[in-house]
Amino acid sequence: MRGRRRKPRPPIPWRSPWTPVVCLAGGLAVAAIVVVSALAKDVVVVVDGRRTAVHSFAGSVRDVLREAGVSVGFGDVVHPPVHQELADGATIEVRRARPITLTLDGRTSEHLVTSTSVGGALAELAIPVSAGRVSARTDAAVPLSGMALTVYTRRKVYVVTGDTRLSFRTTARTVREALRRQHIELGRGYQVQPPLDSFPEDGTVITITPPRTDPVEPDVAALNWQALAACESRGDPEAYNPEGPYYGMYLFSLPMWKAVGGLDLPTDWPEEEQTYRAQLLYQQVGGRWQGQWPRCGAQLFT
After folding, report:
1. Residue 98's pLDDT is what?
2. How far apart are CA 217 and CA 35, in angstroms?
3. Does position 29 have pLDDT exceeding 60, yes or no?
4. pLDDT, tens digit, 9 for 90 and up, residues 87-109
5. β pairing state of 240-241 and 164-170
6. Residue 102: CB partners within 8 Å, gap ≥ 6?
């Protein structure tokens, strides 16, 4: 009696001739995924303070910026540099340039800054925030299109008027404004040097002299007043001779000084004022200098 034939065994997958091929393909796929994953980088792009996460396969900073749609123009600052290779986890910072038209103490110049605030822009331009008066708030934003800034620094100014000597710091745009801020009133006809509409730079000496209502004749102004002063006092506007007493470059007595409109003491006033009053005195005595400057008056004609 014949025995029963056994049923054929089901094929075993791993004994299939295709098994090595499938395994190899799977391994290659897994390896490819691992390699690709290793090539991908997670970076952060910061443009003017705004952060954006980027997943990229780019190899350099320039490439990842291109992928992120960030263009780099003239004056823009990029860190790390655009040619540097990209590392996973890196942070790329882009600060875009902004044009600034700066007027500093009346002088205008053009600049590029990357700061997004006025205070930061001033710092880039090496102008201390506490320097003086600024046309915009320091926390105001600087638009990408740029802006104009006007800055008046705090300067030291001196005022000389008669026996008054005053110094102060100011951000004033003109001599007139500087005097007004100090509550210095100008009487009618008073002379001011430098002119009221001029800019008071650091160290400016503002001289205020009494009205000059009497003109000096050209022939009198043409005399050698410098030689007379050199002979009388060695040209010292603060000279003093107790014998009179006599004061100033031309050794005025107080009665004669006041007779020609002089205020306070001659030595309280600058050279120009003393010379003007000496010229008036010469005119007042009709050119008879011998009674006023008997020792040195001849120097007027040298």
Report:
1. 95
2. 100
3. no
4. 888 899 999 999 999 999 989 99
5. unpaired
6. 108, 109, 110, 111, 125, 148, 149, 150, 151
**Could you tell me the fold of the domain covering 155-209?**
Ubiquitin-like (UB roll) (3.10.20)
Separation between Cα atoms, residue 249 and residue 251, nearest integer Å:
6
pLDDT tens for 204-213 read: 999 998 888 8
**What are 52-82's pLDDT values in tens digits?**
898 888 888 998 899 888 888 899 999 999 8
Interatomic CA distance for residues 117 and 291, integer angstroms: 71
Q: Which amino acid is at 260?
A: V
Structure tokens at 295: 């020792």
- How far apart CA 301 and CA 14 sit, in angstroms, is 131
Taking the C-alpha atoms of residue 199 and residue 107, their distance in angstroms, rounded to an integer, is: 11
CB count in 10 Å sphere of residue 87? 11
Q: How far apart are the C-alpha atoms of 169 and 181, rounded to whole Å? A: 11
109: its two tokens: 């110049």
Strand partners, 155: 170
User: CATH assignment of 218-301, given 1.10.530.10, 3.40.50.1780, 3.40.50.2300, 3.40.190.10?
Assistant: 1.10.530.10
Closest CA to 99 of 125, 66, 69: 125
